[in-house]
Amino acid sequence: MASNPARGSGRERLLEAAAAIVSEQGVHELTLEAVAAAAGVTKGGLIYHFKTKDELLGALVETMMAQVEERNRAHAAARGATTGALLQAFIDETFDMPPAEKQLMTNLLAAAAAYPHHMAPAQRLFDRLYGEFAGAGPKAGLALVIAAALDGISLLELMNLHQFSESQRKAMRRALQDLAQTLN
Q1: How far is CA 56 from CA 1, 48, 120, 134, in A?
Q2: Per the domain annotation, does 13 fall within a domain?
């Protein structure tokens, strides 16, 4: 999520400010006052869009999931909109995620325990994607395995359970790209 509070609608500026706070400081530092100050609006201006921190956090998760899906579908469409192209887009997303977005995702994942009701947008995204991959014809199993491998790589790194070396990341990326190519 871009973090330039000087642009976009009031709602977008607030969400960008919230994303910056969560990315840099964590969800525990996300307050209505902090977001209003970071966005350059009054608390009343923020409350016009989001009545509570919970509502703001929910909108942030919803917006992030929509942006990830939109970005990946656009990249897939540019490659031919096949199952393999969609997986190629997710491979790129997994291995090329900017550090600030990775930190934001890490902090939102950490907040999932305290705010499990905000996982619904992510669950819907995964349901759509895995449903789509399951319908990929005779190679559905391969599409599902590639998607699950990408999610596993992401979770290992986001949860700081393991950080792959650059050579490991290159090898995995190459292997996953080769497999995804067979789905085109």
Answers
A1: 15, 11, 15, 33
A2: no
pLDDT over threshold 70, residue 124: yes
Give the HSE-up count for residue 167: Cα atoms under 13 Å, Cβ half-sphere. Answer: 0
Domain that holds residue 109: 57-181
Query: What CATH number is given to the structural domain containing 109?
Result: 1.10.357
pLDDT, tens digit, 9 for 90 and up, residues 10-22: 899 999 999 999 9
Residue 152 Cα distances to 2, 8, 62, 105, 161, angstroms: 25, 34, 22, 14, 11
| Count of CB atoms situated within 10 Å of the CB of 133 | 23
Q: Tell me how many domains the chain contains.
A: 1
Asked whether 39 and 17 are in contact (CB, 8 A), the reply is yes
Q: Is residue 156 part of a domain?
A: yes
CB atoms within 10 A of CB 67: 13
Range 62-69 average pLDDT: 87
What are the tens digits of pLDDT across the range 100-116?
Answer: 888 888 888 888 878 88
User: Per the domain annotation, does 3 fall within a domain?
Assistant: no
In a domain, 116, yes or no: yes
On whether the pTM is more than 0.85, the answer is: no
Q: What is the pLDDT of residue 101?
A: 85
